[in-house]
Write a structure and sequence with these properties.
Helix content: 40-55%
Oligomer: single chain
Distance between the termini: 81 Å
Length: about 325
């Protein structure tokens, strides 16, 4: 029995040491990366967001709102925290981690869309959580209900890296060529120069009657988030960014979904800027698919958004934007 115990120690200790050392190395390298979502998470955890205005939402937020234009016009710092491929559950994780490691923003511009209050089954782009998830309760709570990681991945060193060949390869690639880890995003914003694609045509062929099911847990969490923002004095504005008209007509229960956001806006007296009928939504040249603006469209839209925020009495320099009048807390429609 004693010999067996010694053999376990003899072989086990080196394996455990290797796991801790390898985990620390891989994690430290990813925490330096600027590639894709790693750069955004690293700015959050390193306290480098620290902005007066932050943008939340999905990929539509990420590619539709230019922080340069917002900062230049509002005269306050801005960071775009839109997260590609995810719904509100992961936006809320970013919100919690932002407040933990950065100063509290004055204004959150929250981009809402038809998928905001849904919950996908898979953890899209799950590698982005690798450097931050070990023994991090907030990350585990936000991601463990998705198909992707299990309980042990959050608590045992190195296990979560098993099979992550592409991400591990990118680490060594960036060590040899540091510029390879730069995604080209500016304060989270990712402008797109793509030409119009056939995503909508494919979707129409696949779905004859496309409807979006809302997730009750996401709705409850969204309500909690709104109350937390209000209680902490953070101004919150909902924005439904331009969406190409044919894409709007494709979603059969779209009015019901937008009605949910209007109900939240009315309930909490929040500003809701809906650009569904904006002139941009009828011009294909400003989109690369039905849901996403290209770079030209995004820049035009951001200018419109800033002007509408000003028109609705958001005073960027007042330091007290939450008390700038009733206009900032009522449901509104943008003027084309």
């Amino acid at each position: 029995m004693k010999k067996l115990f010694l053999n376990i120690l003899y072989f086990g200790i080196p394996i455990i040491l290797f796991a801790f050392i390898a985990d620390a190395f891989l994690t430290s390298q990813l925490k330096k990366s600027r590639k894709d979502e790693f750069g955004i998470w690293n700015d959050i955890y390193n306290g480098k967001v620290n902005s007066d205005i932050v943008v939340y939402g999905s990929s539509r937020a990420m590619v539709h709102m230019d922080p340069r234009i917002i900062s230049d016009s509002m005269h306050e710092s801005c960071y775009n925290l839109g997260i590609n491929g995810h719904n509100f559950w992961l936006s809320y994780l970013r919100h919690k981690e932002l407040l933990k490691y950065n100063k509290k923003p004055k204004l959150i511009i929250h981009s809402v869309d038809i998928f905001t209050l849904t919950k996908r089954p898979d953890l899209f782009n799950l590698d982005q959580f690798l450097p931050y998830m070990l023994n991090n309760q907030d990350v585990m709570d936000a991601t463990i209900s998705y198909k992707g990681y299990n309980y042990f991945d959050y608590h045992l060193p190195l296990l979560r890296y098993v099979g992550k060949y592409k991400t591990i390869g990118s680490i060594f690639k960036s060590m040899l060529r540091p510029s390879a880890s730069d995604s080209g995003r500016y304060r989270g914003y990712s402008p797109q120069n793509h030409a119009w694609n056939d995503d909508l045509v494919k979707a129409k062929r696949r779905f004859a009657d496309f409807r979006v099911d809302l997730d009750s847990a996401s709705i409850n969490l969204f309500d909690q988030y709104i109350r937390e923002c209000i209680s902490s004095g953070i101004e919150l504005v909902f924005v439904y960014t331009p969406e190409y008209i044919e894409g709007q007509e494709f979603v059969k229960n779209r009015d019901e979904i937008l009605g949910t956001f209007r109900q939240f806006a009315d309930k909490y007296n929040l500003l809701f800027l809906d650009y569904s009928d904006d002139t941009l939504s009828f011009q294909k040249k400003y989109f690369y698919n039905a849901s996403h603006l290209n770079k030209d469209g995004a820049e035009l839209f951001t200018v419109k958004l800033v002007n509408d925020l000003k028109r609705n009495s958001y005073e960027a320099d007042s330091g007290n934007s939450g008390n700038s009048g009733n206009a900032t807390r009522k449901s509104s429609k943008s003027v084309n």
